[in-house]
Design a protein that fits this description.
Layout (H helix, E strand, L loop, with lengths): L6 H6 L7 H14 L15 H10 L4 E4 L6 H7 L7 E5 L14 H10 L5 E5 L4 E5 L6 H4 L1 E3 L1 H7 L9 E3 L1 H4 L4 E5 L6 H5 L2 H5 L3 E2 L6 E2 L4 E6 L3 H4 L5 H6 L2 E4 L6 H11 L9 E2 L2 H16 L12 H20 L5 E2 L9 H5 L6 H6 L1 H18 L5 H6 L7 H8 L4 E4 L4 H9 L4 H5 L9 H14 L3 E6 L3 E6 H16 L1
Parallel strand pairs: 1-10, 1-11, 4-7, 7-10, 12-13
Antiparallel strand pairs: 2-3, 5-6, 8-9, 14-16, 15-16
Helix pairs in contact: 13-14, 13-15, 14-15, 14-18, 18-23
Length: about 500
């Protein structure tokens, strides 16, 4: 088909004009019949969002993706390009992507009248049929719809009443294309009104011209529910004209969250020398889940999937920096490396009043502690329940070692050998880890998790050191130190 260069050749082919909505529908039907993957890279939406999108396409609907930040709304919209034909014919030189067999612009109509079957044809690739606009308060009707161009009028010596002086906006130029408006509530109400006709009647009028363009566009809108109260709103008549409203959501399963992070995180070739255990990947995902449930974080604002993605990149980079400082050829991530993840947390959460009082850093530590605690309970007995029962304490040997006055320092930048030797010193620690079926390379990661977990349950005390590290010791030692300090003050 791409070999066709003129209108006459196109007429002799089996090409037939169809709207973009029909094109999407027919191509979707073919892919569904062949059981082909339609939205590659979209994880966790197989039984929820994806079926809604497919139903909307089959119904020839314009769509509004409604969901909190970081829920792949724009990514889904961009993937709809895969449902378009590889190429479509357009009248050469047309601003509006005119179909040679169904032209709508005066330019194309006049050109076809003049040249007939010799009218030149161009082919538009599907990648060039995607138009995206971020809605901001300064977007004007001229930007979206169009306006009179005085320079064009002067150059062509035309009166302002001649429609050839019109400079078309983004929407008319998106004829036969996917047109996406992100953050729709940020669009001023009077600008939203300009979309009424095109969504309902399928045409658009520019200023006072009699010209009405029967545009064929697949509209896709994205919005965050929080925008309805914070920055703006989608006016009711416009919402009524968007036929399908599709609700997105965050991953419901930890497995889906892990797959998304692994897919989206940018890891360089050099960083492949750093082993990230599945344990630490799980803790990273638990960070997002814990943040979404935290009383310090505004749940209406949401916690983007980008938190886990940025956190993984930071975790690897923290381990890489430590590896370089110690002149090591490879290394494995540690829980102490999670201090380097804190900037990824503080920049991705909106705090409520109580969170602001605590401060972003302390909130991040609280979220990290919750994630560690939950992961700890997936592998080890709950210390709180063991204390209440008559069951033998599996942590007895570890408690006794710390109770004898021993301490352990885990420094952020210590070498792998120093780190491993520090953990090996703790009596009973290695023996307890051997009861769990884990990979040999993750051995020390679980030893460290056990120490951190006991600190979260206040079996041990964890002190943050000024030298960038942590000291673990018996929690009763803190009490005795405080009692001695109080006695000294009294005397």
């Amino acid at each position: 088909m791409k070999d066709i260069k003129t209108l006459g050749e196109l007429k002799k082919s089996d090409y037939k004009p169809r709207s973009i909505k029909e094109e999407l529908r027919e191509n979707l039907i073919q892919k569904l019949k062949k059981k082909e993957e339609i939205f590659p890279g979209i994880i966790g939406f197989k039984d929820t969002v994806i079926p809604d999108v497919e139903r909307a396409i089959l119904s020839r609907h314009n769509m509004l993706f409604l969901g909190l930040r970081g829920q792949a709304k724009t990514k889904i919209a961009r993937l709809l390009v895969n449902l378009l034909d590889d190429h479509i014919p357009v009248v050469a030189g047309s601003e509006l992507n005119d179909d040679p067999l169904d032209p709508i612009s005066k330019y194309a109509i006049n050109l076809i009248k003049e040249k007939g079957d010799d009218t030149p044809i161009e082919w538009l690739a599907k990648e060039d049929r995607y138009v995206e606009k971020l809605a901001t308060p300064d977007v004007s009707i001229a930007d979206l719809v169009g306006d009179v161009d005085p320079i064009k009028a002067a150059t062509l010596k035309l009166p302002y009443s001649d429609e050839r002086v019109i400079h078309f906006g983004l929407i008319p130029r998106s004829h036969r294309c996917l047109f996406v408006i992100n953050e729709l509530p940020d669009l001023q109400a009077r600008i939203q009104v300009s979309l009424f006709n095109i969504l309902q009647e399928g045409d658009m009028q520019i200023r006072g011209f009699k010209l009405r363009l029967p545009l064929k566009i697949q509209f896709l809108f994205t919005a965050n529910p929080e925008d309805y109260t914070n920055r703006g709103s989608i006016i009711t008549p416009l919402k009524d004209r968007i036929s399908s409203q599709i609700l997105t959501h965050y991953p419901k399963k930890i497995e889906d969250a892990l797959a998304i992070t692994s897919q989206e995180a940018k890891v360089s070739k050099d960083q492949e020398r750093i082993h990230v255990s599945d344990l630490h990947k799980t803790i990273l995902e638990e960070l997002s889940f814990a943040a979404r449930e935290s009383d310090f974080v505004d749940e209406k604002s949401g916690v983007s999937a980008r938190l886990s993605i940025s956190a993984l990149e930071n975790l690897i980079s923290t381990a890489e920096r430590r590896m370089l400082l110690n002149d090591e050829k490879s290394t494995t991530t540690r829980l102490t490396d999670f201090w380097g993840v804190i900037p990824a947390i503080t920049g991705k959460v909106e705090l409520v009043y109580e969170g602001e009082q605590e401060g972003p850093y302390m909130v991040a530590l609280s979220i990290l502690g919750t994630a560690v605690k939950k992961t700890f309970l997936a592998f080890f007995p709950n210390p709180e329940k063991l204390q209440k029962g008559s069951q033998k304490d599996p942590y007895g040997t570890i408690r006794e070692w710390f109770g004898a006055g021993h301490t352990i320092d885990l420094m952020n930048d210590q070498s792998d050998k120093q780190y491993q030797n520090a953990l090996k010193e703790v009596a009973g620690l290695e023996k307890m880890i051997k009861k769990i079926k884990i990979a040999e390379e993750d051995h020390f990661a679980f030893m460290e998790l056990l120490i951190h977990g006991l600190a979260q349950f206040e079996i041990l005390s964890m002190d943050i050191l000024e030298e960038n590290g942590m000291k673990f010791r018996d929690i009763l030692a803190d009490m005795f130190d405080q009692d001695m300090f109080d006695d000294f003050n009294e005397n």
